[in-house]
Amino acid sequence: MRHILLLGGTTEASALATALAARGERAVLSYAGRTEAPRAQAIPTRVGGFGGVEGLAEYLTREGVTHLVDATHPFAARISANAIAAAERASVKLLALTRPEWVDGPGDRWTRVADTAEAVAALGTDPARIFLALGRQTIGDFVHAAQHFYLLRFVDAAEPTLPNHHLVVDRGPFTLAGELALLREHRIQTIVAKNAGGSGARAKLDAARELGLPVVMIDRPFIPPRPHADSVAAVLDWLDHGVVRGV
Ligand code: 3Y8
Ligand code: NAP
Asked: Of 71, 90, 138, 210, which residue is least crowded by CB atoms under 10 Å?
């Protein structure tokens, strides 16, 4: 019987976990342990790092994993690179469940940057009111631009290192109405976002367009090539037929 390890932490990973449970598959969803109370899943979960490529390869072999599905966030570049190397080392089939990048459309005022350092530069020096929709791990890069007011949003409460801030503790998915109210309440002038893709964090971009606000959009980090699919159906098809077909 096949045994699936699902690297999770996204809306799509949760949807796939539900589909795997419905089919009675033997599967485990893995969290890094970044949040205090991760969403409950329809399949068993494990929490914590594996210990690099070697640790993940050993886990795959020890647990008899036959299929590794990487459904992590596109900015989780290290675990994704580790998954490629570990699957190779342990001779386990690998598929990434990815989601298309967001693209700007009519009415959008995006500036695309490569990383948070370029995002800081893109904000300019005049003090402004910024919605830093990046979570907690990377806000340290903005401490050099302390002249701005920052609206921050974390999954869990924490003491931000930025002086002039307002912290909202909330986890997605977010709604257009909620994002419009938040941007208006805090008189936000610019949004900084990662190109996460998917639906869970998209609402802030729709709100920015409606309010005519500029967005500094951070492009995804490089992830080495690997087999990938962009739907739960395609992953299930891969499990059954061993190939990725456009379904
Ligand atoms: C721990 C699991 C689900 C999955 C929900 C998606 C949607 C909401 C959008 C904003 C942007 C941000 C952040 C975000 C989104 C979904 C999805 C997605 C962005 C959870 C989760 C874990 C994490 C980790 C957390 C990071 C942080 C990033 C908040 C669970 C809720 C900003 C990324 O405090 C910390 O250390 C948080 C760290 C990595 C980025 C950062 O640098 O701070 N996600 N997010 C996963 C683990 O331990 O393995 O707690 O339930 C998952 C989700 N986050 O099933 O409902 O699918 O993308 N997550 C970004 O995109 O910029 C919020 O606020 O607008
Ligand atoms: P990362 O930088 O790519 O990975 C750093 C280390 O964290 C990995 O080497 C691994 O440790 C551990 N790790 C990461 N994801 C894991 C998982 N799903 N299960 C077990 N260990 C994991 O990871 P990250 O960007 O911090 O993301 C961590 C988690 O948050 C992932 O589940 C991701 O899907 C989710 N997430 C991240 C973002 C984001 O913006 N980065 C957004 C939404 C959700 P070892 O080397 O010890 O194995």
From this structure: 210
- Asked if 144 and 120 touch (Cβ cutoff 8 Å), the reply is yes
- Residue 202, by phi and psi: left (phi above 0), alpha (psi -120 to 50) or beta? alpha
**In the chain, where the domains are located:** 3-100+222-241, 110-218
In this structure, whether the domain defined by 110-218 belongs to CATH 3.40.50.150 is answered with yes
Residue 220: closest CA among 107, 113, 140: 113
The answer to pTM > 0.90 is yes
| Ligand 2 centroid from CA 32, angstroms | 5
DSSP code for 153:
E
Atom of ligand 1 nearest to the CA of 197: 58
Q: Please list the pLDDT of the chain residue by residue as tens digits (247 residues).
A: 899 999 999 999 999 999 999 999 999 999 999 999 999 999 999 999 999 999 999 999 999 999 999 999 999 999 999 999 999 999 999 999 999 999 999 999 999 999 999 999 999 999 999 999 999 999 999 999 999 999 999 999 999 989 899 999 999 889 999 999 999 999 999 999 999 999 889 999 999 999 999 999 999 999 999 999 999 999 999 999 988 876 5
Ligand 2 pocket test: pick from 30, 72, 139, 218 the residue with the most ligand atoms within 8 Å of its Cβ. 72
